[in-house]
Amino acid sequence: MRVKRGGGQLADGNDNISLLLNPGGLGGWASYQRHLRHLVCPAGFGCVGFKDRPGLMDFHGQPGQRARFMSIDFPRELLAPRVADLEDAARGRLVPGEALRLLMRQALELTHSPEALSPERTTQAAEQLLDMATLTLGGTRDATELAVKRGLSAARLRAIKAMMAAHASYGGLSVNWVAKRYGISPDYVRALFKRQGTSFTDHLLELRLQRAYRQLAGQRRGGRPIVDVAYSSGFNNLSWFYRAFRQRFGMTPKDARNGLSIQGNMGAFSSLLYR
């Protein structure tokens, strides 16, 4: 498939800057714009697109291979002043790096969100995408400093939380394990959670308790033994599991299996710590 942007499209006067991204898949595509190189974008890569220039894109792949394509538009007046050399950034591919990976992750999360964002969350998400785009393209000194302090930290925390949710049942999940996977220090991981008024330990505990509750409430009578549910949810200390579960939900694990409603305060876990 070939997609062109020619005179008819240029007549709309749109001068936005687009990040054309390939978030994954076996297929790919190539992009060409006037005064820029012909750029091939396999999975994980991307390039810059200027809406005020003619260009074309060729999508390719073997039979049965779907090419994935994502375009994120930024108003020129917002993005261009933040980038040190926009023309230079547009001459080459956007190679996989932390900022680009986090940008793709957040954009995909937004496309998969089942509900519309609140005005406040919309503004926040737009700022974070702008910060990740700035770091991806190479920002000015001031813009980079702001993007690292604001957008990168928020994006890292979202990614860490998503990873923790996927691996919450792993008993060895710890702040050191997470820090090693992301190439950052354990203290930095703790600081990310502290800025949100919580802690790594409390967030992990909440994930595991929610996992245990869902399993127990979904099985009702005659399901797996409670001890199996506890261990499969990431707990390695049964007495701690029973105590934390009761404090979190206002009932015992057995009550949850028998169909009792939650009585506890949903936010009462800021003081719970692993022992």
From TrEMBL:
Keyword DNA-binding: yes
Pfam families: HTH_18 (PF12833)
Keyword hit for Transcription regulation: yes
Residues covered by the HTH araC/xylS-type domain: 158-259
Keywords in alphabetical order: DNA-binding, Transcription, Transcription regulation
Superkingdom to which the source organism belongs: Bacteria
Annotated InterPro entries: AraC_XylS_family_regulators (IPR050204), Homeodomain-like_sf (IPR009057), HTH_AraC (IPR018060), Tscrpt_reg_AraC-type_HTH (IPR020449)
Cited PANTHER family: ARAC SUBFAMILY, HTH-TYPE TRANSCRIPTIONAL ACTIVATOR RHAS-RELATED
Name this protein carries in UniProt: Helix-turn-helix transcriptional regulator
Organism whose genome encodes this protein: Billgrantia zhangzhouensis
Record lineage: Bacteria, Pseudomonadati, Pseudomonadota, Gammaproteobacteria, Oceanospirillales
